[in-house]
Amino acid sequence: MSPELINKVGVITEALVAFLGASLVAFWVGFVFWTFNDIRARTHDLLTILLATLLVLVTGPLGVLLYLLMRPKYTLMELYDRQLEEEALYREVEQQLVCPNCHRRVEPDWMFCPYCHTQLKKACVSCGRLLDLEWDICPYCGAPQQTEESPQVVGAVLDEAALTKQPSAPSS
Ligand SMILES: [Zn+2]
Ligand SMILES: [Zn+2]
Fold it and tell me: What is the mean pLDDT of residues 50-58?
């Protein structure tokens, strides 16, 4: 081998090493920035952010692997979305109406339970919209309603009052 060739090989090797070194540094820095951004999307905890970034800063590609194994599974946005979904589901379940008699599912605009024929709602005497049975006024048009329960309740209270008054006349 001529000295010229050896010189050439030396130059090429040097260039290669320099290139690889620069690439490694670039990757290293890239990993650190990527980790910093990724962990910030997953937690607000400053200590965790600091530790994860330091881990990758010190150990480089190995740290990235470790970080990928240990990082929180969901980003904060994903957690927020899941929470919203769960709340929506919960609300849906909560809003499902059931017949007070047979406990089967009924729709909010049904006047009667189709399974056991229990009356669920009544129609306003004036505008015809559906009202709860115990309402004594229509919230839509203001027309007073006859309630089936209120006379009984008033009657029961009156009866009770009469019963308690009768035996103990000298109460005052
Ligand atoms: Zn029913
Ligand atoms: Zn009405």
Answer: 94
